[in-house]
Design goal:
The structure is a homodimer. Chain A is α/β, with parallel strands linked by helices and about 400 residues long. Chain A contains 13 helices and 15 strands. Chain A has 2 domains: about 10-20 and about 280-390, no CATH class; about 35-255, Alpha-Beta Complex (Spore Coat Polysaccharide Biosynthesis Protein SpsA, Chain A). In chain A, α13 (about 360-380) links the parallel β14 (about 345-350) and β15 (about 385-390). β9 (about 190-195) of chain A pairs antiparallel with β11 of chain B, so a sheet runs across the interface.
Chain lengths: ~400, ~400
């Protein structure tokens, strides 16, 4: 940004949206699932009522953290809000029944209000996973037969990356087959152990799969399965598909899901989840430059290098910048960043010292690219408004 | 840092060591494993030769990256170098036989030289995992019977977080029992599928475990197992423990390992690995301040807040800073950072504007804490030498 003829420094600004705004979380990408938009239209849309049961009663034992992992925040937004949003943006999903432990009801109500979730109702959890899911299923049927969903999706609050195409596949298969579950190949070999802690035998990997979420059921089947199952199932069972098989005689269809369906379980998974959130959000970053030829060329190169984000050349800023001819760039960026923050935009400044020779210029351009890339990747709110030097 | 009486700004510097220096990677923490140092001394040390086979032939298929994941870099150092270092720092491990695909031999030789690995030899990989491990085991025996290890540890290049206490347990058990493997509880329910893709049955989770690495064998058992096994085992088998059982009649002892033993498999695991590396390294950050009372108080508070890192109050810096009375803080920090970089120290500057009233002071102190925390957590080399404003 050429602020006047005496100041030859250029400012390249890099602004990234924050996750806190549900509106900018990008929709599912094409080509990631077997069901594309065109397949959906050829098979027909979802013209029957679908609702979701989302058990969120976990205690966070395995992450070693005090906050249950579904309530851990990523870029200022709790994990469960990402999961809810993944369902809320699907037009053919009516209701999301979140099953939450009594001690977290207030927190959950806060989250629903703050992130403006509109399809969510809450119901108190039970003492085990199955009792909680059962409460959710029953709550979906309480408003009378005509309001009952035809298909129920059961998912986990700690699997935030489920996409519409895959949900479509789950729901259509549930309608046809009665029960359906997502599976993944096993990452490790599974072995049977003796009671003394020795190897008994190794399972043949090709015949087995990891059972993941989401799962789908017609309302009737999941309702009957919970109505008929034993106290021991409610206490010790782990698998809804197993209940459907045992109590309704329905062999669930199994569909391989994408690797992003994995469950946030350990502390390291929180970092992995943050990485995926950041990677997805990085698509909505933009670079703003002043009108100087060098700056525009450089911003163009950055745009090409990072590929995924759009570039905005905001001429209006120059006017702002020279409103007082003596305006220093550092306070200006801090001021702009403060103004941008309430609109969920993270703004960082990079000051490029316009060099005299080509070699220096190349070095500076490389620094700008490095810093821009780091800012986009890290999306660190603590560095907002800083004027970095390239 | 009070640079002279006219400049009242304080500079708090935050320097963090880089992973690239193998010397600063911290040793294993106490209390993380069942075998503590005192147990080791009561059970006696490892007084027999132990070597490692480290297959590193993976193609990186599942991460979706061009670089095989063992060669992906974290904070400037490839993943496999962290894994090698985890073994190299254990005094009773003699040799590490890295099995590497022919096309990566040169890259591996580079890594060994650059990160000064001293216990490593390489051997060309085979067409399958078992052929590769077999090559490694045979290579360990080539120097004659007297140089043969008594116990062989088999591990994965993409499991960098193995600790000495757990290796001790593996090695002592291998010596006693002939074969031993690390296990973990199953994260997902395992299900058997019909050939048509329907649920056949659900496995009872309590009886099964995920088989992980490291595994340990006496040299004789692993050598005989590979000598006797079939071509089909070498081609399609996945589990060394299974070969020991089938061809040597040895039921391996199974030991539960820590969650950090997990295998870097998907792209998200790279983020999880980086998180653990950063978390471990954050223990070696320090805060440097000038002598002003406010700055020292603040640095003390930061030191308490972050707990794990030591504080250095480097008086000498003041001398540097005022060597020319008109030295601007920004270029000075850039200069110091350049000087520190070859010594693997990342140096960042934070300029604290000494405020007039208490409320402002609290706000500034909070900003310093925020920025310091972010810098320590992210360890971003692209931001080295920046003077950030608090």
């Amino acid at each position: 940004m050429e602020m006047n003829q005496n100041i030859t420094d250029d400012v390249v600004k890099c602004a990234t949206d924050r996750a806190a705004d549900p509106g900018i979380f990008p929709a599912c990408k094409a080509g990631k699932s077997e069901y594309t938009a065109s397949e959906r239209s050829s098979r027909g849309g979802v013209d029957f009522p679908v609702s979701v049961v989302l058990p969120a009663g976990g205690t966070g034992e395995r992450t070693g953290l005090r906050t249950p992992k579904q309530f851990c925040t990523f870029l200022g937004r709790p994990l469960i809000s990402y999961t809810i949003h993944a369902f809320e943006r699907v037009s053919w999903i009516q209701r999301i029944m979140v099953v939450v432990a009594k001690e977290n009801t207030e927190l959950m109500t806060d989250i629903i209000q703050r992130y403006q979730h509109t399809k969510v109702q809450t119901v108190p959890g039970g003492s085990t996973r199955h009792r909680s899911i059962c409460n959710g299923v029953l709550a979906l049927g309480e408003d009378g037969e005509d309001k009952r969903p035809e298909v129920v999706i059961i998912h986990d609050a700690v699997r935030p990356f489920v996409e519409e195409d895959f949900l479509y596949k789950i729901v259509m298969t549930a309608k046809e087959q009665g029960a359906v579950g997502a599976i993944r190949p096993l990452v490790s070999t599974v072995i049977a152990t003796t009671s003394e802690g020795y190897l008994d035998h190794t399972l043949e990997r090709a015949k087995y799969r990891a059972s993941e979420m989401p799962q789908g059921f017609t309302y009737d089947i999941i309702y009957q399965a919970y109505k008929r199952c034993s106290e021991s199932d409610l206490e010790f069972g782990t698998e809804c598909l197993h209940l459907a098989l045992q109590y309704c005689g329905t062999n669930a269809k199994l569909i391989e899901g994408p690797p992003t369906l994995w469950k946030v379980t350990y502390k390291r998974d929180l970092a992995a989840a943050e990485f995926i959130i950041k990677e997805t959000l990085s698509q909505s970053a933009c670079v703003i430059t002043g009108p100087s030829l060098h700056a525009v060329t450089l911003a163009g190169a950055l745009w090409k290098a990072f590929g995924t984000f759009g570039m905005v050349h905001l001429r209006g800023l120059d006017g702002l910048a020279i409103s007082g001819t003596m305006t220093e760039p550092a306070p200006l960026i801090m001021e702009l960043a403060s103004a941008a923050k309430p609109r969920n935009v993270l703004l960082f400044g990079i000051q490029l010292h316009q060099p005299n020779d080509l070699e220096q210029w190349e070095r500076s351009a490389l620094r700008v690219a490095e810093i821009t890339s780091a800012l986009i990747r890290e999306r660190n709110p603590a560095l907002v408004g800083q004027l970095l030097q390239a």
